[in-house]
Design brief:
2 copies of one chain form a homodimer. Chain A has about 190 residues and is an all-alpha fold. Chain A is about 65% helix and about 0% strand.
Chain lengths: ~190, ~190
DNA sequence: CACGATACGGAACTATCATTCCGTTTGTCA
DNA sequence: TGACAAACGGAATGATAGTTCCGTATCGTG
């Protein structure tokens, strides 16, 4: 079953603890500064040395990928909950999108990643994205059957709209309101 | 009328020529590489030395601002032409947005700038943006009077949607289709 | 045509960060 | 508790890229 990697010995207690501290610290720092955040800052905020950060994540990119991966995991969780939620299908879908937008509203790095600034960070998140796509497809289809989402909406339209909303969130030069952008986006999904 | 700056002597012929070469070269390089383009590349592609680039533009940022400013100028031109164009007001507006999207479809740096990645680059483009906003407002209002654009669409909704479409254009990790995004965006403007 | 001012080129300088290295510390297990 | 492997910290390294400097070349004018 596992032909490529040898089994790795369990992490020492302090290492396990530090790994989580680093991820938490990194989330804070990358949320504030985006992809240009510095590894030294991550180390400092996490309360460890840079060397320790690099012991756990071989590169800055690997660290960012882990943050993005966890974000997609949260997305999946929101979406999966919605599968069994009551309510009109369009509203359920809208709720998922709104919830997932809120999740990343304060995180500049994740916004940038979702906008596709650098494809590298996406590598290593295939499983999560696939599952998210699956569920989103199901949610859209239900709403289409109910007649509340346009029949021509495809699987890629949802992430595409999310990508646009991320740009709005991250816009530093003008105070656009991403809630408004989401509202318009949802209106464009709605069947007439 | 001019209380702040002293009159500058006219540029020497070679300097004037080089200035245009630099802007053209910079457009190519920044279009391909986005904001992370390098000044040495700009110099090389423009056929001058780095020193010359810096003689004309004190910083990389100033050079990018000039490119963005010219882009806004083109936008204004497209939009101004539309003011006297025949046709149903919604279609006229749609045409402007489509045309302006096409203008920047191949320019990574401008896409990034319009997405608001770095507010600094916007400084020095106030006049152009103001005029563009003015004209866009007029075009929207006409369509609203004609009943083909939702009455609640405000002046900032248009640039916000453009911002989102730029994100789609620049997405390196997934091949989203910005024409589709524009189409959805226009649908969200349309009165029902 | 000569000469002063303007402009040019590109090597050198500098700052910024990601990443590495190694001496020290700390967990784990017998 | 003693020993050894695992993990740590942070100074040092190296690479990248913006910017400056100054000797040289070119333009425009008298």
């Amino acid at each position: 079953m596992d032909t490529t990697a040898e089994t790795k010995p369990p992490l020492r207690a302090d290492a396990r603890r530090n790994r989580e501290k680093i991820i938490e610290g990194a989330r804070k720092v990358f949320a504030r500064s985006g992809a240009s955040a510095q590894m030294e800052d991550v180390a400092h905020v996490s309360g460890v040395g840079v060397g320790t950060v690099y012991r756990h994540f071989p590169t800055k990119e690997a660290l960012m990928t882990e943050l993005v991966r966890r974000t997609f995991e949260s997305f999946v969780e929101t979406a999966r909950d919605a599968l069994t939620a009551p309510g009109e299908p369009f509203e359920v879908l809208a709720g998922v999108l709104h919830g997932n937008c809120e999740l990343i509203a304060g995180d500049a790095a994740v916004q940038q990643a979702l906008m596709g600034a650098g494809a590298e960070v996406w590598e290593g998140t295939e499983r999560e994205r696939a599952e998210l796509g699956q569920i989103a497809h199901e949610l859209v289809e239900r709403a289409q059957c109910a007649g509340t989402v346009r029949p021509d909406i495809g699987p890629d339209d949802i992430p595409m709209l999310m990508c646009g909303i991320c740009a709005t969130m991250g816009h530093t030069a003008k105070p656009f309101d991403w809630h408004r952008h989401l509202e318009l986006g949802l209106d464009s999904l709605r069947a007439r």
